[in-house]
Amino acid sequence: MKPRHGGSTSVASIVAQIAADALEVPVERISHVAHGSTTTVSDGYGAYHSRSVVMGGSAGGFTALSAVASAPGLFSAAATAYPVTDLADLPVNSHRFEQHYTDLLVGPWPQAVDLYTARSPISWPERFVGTPLLVLHGDADPVVSVQQSIAFVDGVRRAGGEAQLHVYAGE
Questions:
Q1: Closest Cα partner for 70 from 35, 113, 25, 114?
Q2: Residue 146 and residue 170: Cα distance in Å, rounded?
Q3: Among 167, 159, 165, which residue's Cα sits nearest to residue 69?
């Protein structure tokens, strides 16, 4: 399953969607991914949890990882490219066009720092034990620092999880 997630490239449509309640849309997306996988299996579409892999890149990687963490055992693996694993890193280290994107989706920085931490996959590495992870990241990414992926994979491994990281030079 690959969540369709526009990320910052479709920020205008996201702003329209979240005008009423900016803080709930990301949480709803995560539950939709888990529900979609469960429905696909239960409705007999030939899918099996033992063969279901969730995938995503950037904000979609965040969604994929959050879905794995919110529904242990639902996915057999996750494959992510340049995933957002530490929301608190974005307003500090991201490209200037991206730095305020999370204000709309999480809350104003730094006032909502507790919410940023609570929603970040890097904060709960133990939830990934039992689900193999593949993380792909370029070392020149100006939006999501490769350090997010390095720290996340290290945390998952320390918690006893299986995570592979492939870093691409110049990407």
A1: 35
A2: 11
A3: 159
Q: Pick from 161, 142, 141: which is nearest to 65 by CA?
A: 161
The identity of residue 162, as a single letter, is E
3-state helix, strand, coil in the chain (%, to 5): 50, 15, 40
d(CA 2, CA 78): 10
Q: Which residues have CB under 8 Å from 138's CB, separation 6+?
A: 82, 146, 167, 168, 169, 170, 171
- Tens-binned pLDDT, residue by residue, of the chain (171 aa): 556 555 544 444 443 343 334 444 456 677 777 777 767 667 776 666 677 899 999 989 999 999 999 988 889 999 999 999 999 999 999 888 777 888 888 899 999 999 999 999 999 999 999 999 999 999 999 999 999 999 999 999 999 999 999 999 999
The pTM for the full model equals 0.82
